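Service request form, structural biology core

Requester: graduate student, group of Dr. S.
Request type: structure prediction, single chain
Budget code: on file
Notes: please return the result as structure tokens.

Sequence provided:
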Amino acid sequence: MRITRSRILSINGSKTETVMICNVIFDLGAVLFEWNPVRIVQTFTDSPTEQNILLKEVIHHPDWLSLDRGTMLLAEEIPKFAARTDFTVARMQSFIDHVLDSLQPIQATENLLYQVLDNHFSAYYLTNMSNAFFETLHDRNEFFSLFAGGIVSGREFVIKPEPQIYQLLLDRYDLQPEQSLYIDDNADNVKAAKTLGFHAVQFEQTDACFSKIRDLLKIYQ
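Core staff response, request fulfilled:
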């Protein structure tokens, strides 16, 4: 039997309703895994010119969103990225490998995940990410086996903050938004989740943010 936790919402100091939070939904990039594009390019090349090119023509290019949406495959995009940046295909492949290697777990969030599970919440993920990237992260990190499920944009051809991807998560796992806490670093994604009825927190790697999440869930270190 799944144990639920409740919290009392108040308006003007008056208790109004009990909200049962059963599910905690994690974004991946910049929430469960480090994602800092500036640092990524700086640790790949010392050249400021190349750093700017990689940010503009790869990570921040619309084609990167196509990877996230699943409408382009990484094998197709690497030659395009190489041609656009005037890098060799081999060097562009090295950069993509470097990006993947940079996606290391954020230890404090991993610890939060274990606390969430220890306190009998169900954990899910909802991420904008290419399927190729996700498969690599999945293979490298054993904690994915602890999730009850999740949605990867690159597999579904829809991305946040489009409401369809949130609804897909709800429908596929029979979840109720008012019973679910969503954690994401992106303000637009958080706003979209709230519009659909989720409890949502905009994530920052700060003690205050982790405390806020634990307070909402009534779990403590």
